Amino acid sequence: MANKRFDQAMERIQSPSFNDMPLLARADTFKELKDGGLLNKEIAALAKKTPQHVEQLLILATAEPGVRRLIAREQVTYAMVIEAVRDERRGGQSALTALNRMVANAREAGRSRAMRRDLEPVKLPNRRTLISMLTELTPLRAPIAEQLDAGQDEMSISISQSQGRVLVSLLDVVLIGKRPGKKARSSARDAKGAM
After folding, report:
1. What's the CA gap between 19 and 71, in Å, rounded?
2. Distance of CA 179 to the CA centre of its chain
3. Which UniProt keywords apply (predicted)?
4. Alpha helices, DSSP H, located in 120-177
5. What is d(CA 108, CA 118) in angstroms, rounded to the nearest whole number?
């Protein structure tokens, strides 16, 4: 079965109409060739594209179904998807959540397709607030360092309620771009954008 899919992918990529195929179909073709053992540069040579282009389409081919639906519906550009997926892989927020927010912002502006300006940048707290938050967490450093030095896989530390609030606020800033003290956008609203 795998050989048949690889052979079919080879036929598609060598077809004169390959570049006229929908973007996700081309991405899936690249993935089938990659899964069949070809290197990005070999796929690029067959498609007469750059290895970077192949890498980008492989990102699209492996995107979660909700992200693929946004691409198929042409609600986002593939460049925005690649950026969102790479950000998620670096520890940022979910690509689907970020893209759904962009689509929602575009709809609010009366457009059917999200644009880069619809991207919500991570809003960091001002310097004074950040220093205050980190100062609140400073007493946690010593017990955490001791447990790390002891090689403990799981740590047990006591934190105050105010330290817990600070940690949650910092995580909100990093993971969902929420300013300290502000309520996050509803995840139900984010999920609605994927439908």
Report:
1. 17
2. 20
3. Plasmid
4. 127-137, 141-149, 161-176
5. 10
Residues 170, 128, 102, 64, Cα dihedral to 10°: -20
Within 10 angstroms of residue 155's Cβ, the number of other Cβ atoms is 11
Mean pLDDT for 6-23 is 93
pLDDT of amino acid 174: 65
State pTM to two decimals.
Answer: 0.60
61 with 27: CB under 8 angstroms? yes
Tell whether the model's pLDDT for residue 46 goes beyond 90.
yes
Query: What is the reported pLDDT for 166?
Result: 84
**pLDDT computed for residue 37 by the predictor:** 93
63 and 71 Cβ atoms separated by less than 8 Å:
yes
One-letter amino acid at 90 equals R
Q: Which of 86, 92, 24, 36 is nearest to 61 (CA)?
A: 24
Judged on CB neighbours under 10 Å (0-12, 13-18, 19+), 85 is: buried
At residue 160, what is the residue type? S
Q: How would residue 41 be classed by pLDDT, with cut points 50, 70 and 90?
A: very high
